[in-house]
Fold this sequence. Notes:
By secondary structure, the protein is α+β, with helices and mostly antiparallel strands. The chain is built from 8 helices and 4 strands. It has a 4-stranded mixed sheet. Helix 1 packs across helix 6. It holds the Pfam family OSCP.
Amino acid sequence: xxxxxxxxxxxxxxxxxxxxxxxxxxxxxxxxxxxxxxxxxxxxxxxxxxxxxxxxxxxxxxxxxxxxxxxxxxxxxxxxxxxxxxxxxxxxxxxxxxxxxxxxxxxxxxxxxxxxxxxxxxxxxxxxxxxxxxxxxxxxxxxxxxxxxxxxxxxxxxxxxxxxxxxxxxxxxxx
Length: 175
């Protein structure tokens, strides 16, 4: 994994530089995410190694509809250098660079039930005060949490779930 990240880093930086210069960071981010999802599919991954697959076919397969010509050229470069399997790592590193440049934190809020919009806004405001940055919130539902929520924001995890509290209580009682 670390070797893949090492190999992917220069491509992510190059893609970031191109996208920032064009003022198209969000478009490149979503295009890279699409290409990464397609390339990570086991059936497609096997197809990408096929020598009969041409450069143009590969770009058509991996580029989302409406992607810029420059993005297609980037995919062609990855094809030429046999780096298409690195697309998931490239997309992840690109997003890290983007969020750092935009001073944004990406947070995943996992709750036992779907949270109302007002509650999500409260969480977003609290995270914005804590990090001093804009916060992009994604949500997920995990009924096994019983109640409450778990917030995963970069290197910080805030476990306010009943499942987590019960686990900590159990550990405290066991000692």
